[in-house]
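Re: the 177-residue chain
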Amino acid sequence: MAGARARLALGSTNPAKRAAVERVAAALFPACQLATVDVPSGVPAQPWSDEETARGALARAEAARAALDADYGVGIESGVAEGPGGRLYAVSWAAAVDRAGRTGLGASERFALPPELAVRLRAGAELGPLLDELTGARGLSRRQGAVGILTQGRRDRAAILEPAVLHAFVALLEPWR
């Protein structure tokens, strides 16, 4: 893969997701084209578990690769999952698929959500719109995301998605071949 020219299709038009893929692609492919396409995830707007979130990422990757006839499809999905101590965590998964049908999944770092957000999420709210409502800003999930708000700008969404994208490509790198 390293040294190869590749066409990548990202199953989202979200700028934070695109930035994460651009950063990882620059390290993996010296010459690549990245196109974005809005495709469905096949999971609820607020995925609720690692399994559901990863399934959404994989559906986006497969649909994007097929829609744009790319060498690789990339999907990123964010959700929430129950964690230790009864806390609710923000989670993100990335998937990479190639023309041969090989797939890879990678997870981002996760972080606990404040209890007051968890109560609203458990009652059926979606994290992105909920943060917009609480902060009075619009489109936070397309920029800094929940992590940017909760860390007061010390971390942003693209930065936490990068490792997930890299780890998704690990299954396709196969350095032992």
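The radius of gyration is 16 Å.
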